[in-house]
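hey m, so remember when u said the tokens were messed up on ur end? i reran from scratch. heres the input so u can diff it against urs
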Amino acid sequence: MTQTRRRLKLGLLVTGLSAGVGFGLVKAYDSLVRQPKLADESFAIVRTDVQAPEVQLVGPGGKSLTLSQYRGEVLFVNFWATWCPPCREEMPSMLQLGGELSRAYPGKFRMVAVSGDEGWAQVDQYFRQHFGGTPKVLTVALDTEGKAARSFYCAARGVCPDIKFPETYIVDRSGKLVGYVVSGRDWTDPAARRFLERLLGG
């Protein structure tokens, strides 16, 4: 084999290897960056950057509860009601996500379910019937007049149209309202966990 042919074969080999490496890099970028970004966008978490409103809620037993008392934790604040079909539909996947993150990030994540029902009777009955009682992963509160739901709705949007259920708001550890999700979702979607874990430092 002549020296020229050897050089030609070597050049073709290097070109082939370079193309293979380039293809591998493109494939890696697609699976690690582009596809997760598209999935995040399809999950439709609306990004915000405003201070979360200070609201007064009624906890179990009539105890007063404020979200600021959980400063330092990432809060998943879900406004719902037992009479709301999409609220009921998303609750199992919501509880699954809450359980996974609470175990993975103890003391750093809190899931708050704020009910718009008229009283505790409906809420307690719902959880007993479907989950055998109130799940430990949830901090449950009442917002019978809808004042807290309205405060979050207005703070996130800068305008105050009529509130709707369900809606979920994400508050970071500093008390900033950083995102919200309109309507019910499948919370086992990896996009939801990725968004929350970025805030949790995972």
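this time it looks ok to me. The radius of gyration is 24 Å. if urs says something different then somethings off w ur setup not the seq
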